[in-house]
Amino acid sequence: xxxxxxWKILEEIIVEFRKKGMVIPxxxxxxxxxxKVLISLMDVGENDRETAAKIEQYxxxxxxxxxxxxxxxxxxxxVDGWLKxxxxxxxDTRETxxxxxxxxxxxxxxxxxxxxxxxxxxxxxxxxxxxxAEETHLSSRVQNDGLLLVYGSAGNIREFVKKISxxxxx
Length: 170
Description:
Blueprint (H helix, E strand, L loop, with lengths): L2 H17 L6 H19 L4 H25 L2 H16 L1 H6 L15 E5 L7 H10 L3 E4 L5 E5 L1 H15 L2
Antiparallel strand pairs: 1-3, 2-3
């Protein structure tokens, strides 16, 4: 299943809702954010059935709300177009292979290690992110653009992202 492709389509639908001045419930936005975090986790390491099931649950919940609400607000042709795109993204395995993945060479990170870049948030400041990285046995440094580069083993990166997800969902 092309989780990232489905996620992007759902995000586009939310943008259309906001253009019309519609308010998206917090639980729907939270589910979309949780799905994105889990998709990132799957990109870091092994594919886990439990993670895949949770991603499908979150995406399904968001899709159900958006499509149900869209049918009341938008033209049938537009909703049908979104449904067709969602179906193609869900079942077309070639689409999942063609989704671009941001992979750049980062100087100073050993080749055998995985890395992520994180933008500090108000509720999770840079100091807290560095502390979490250290607790999960990861190395980190602040880059010129203000993002925090965190690198280490795939398992530790996964654990780090889970901790950040738990902090941001509070």
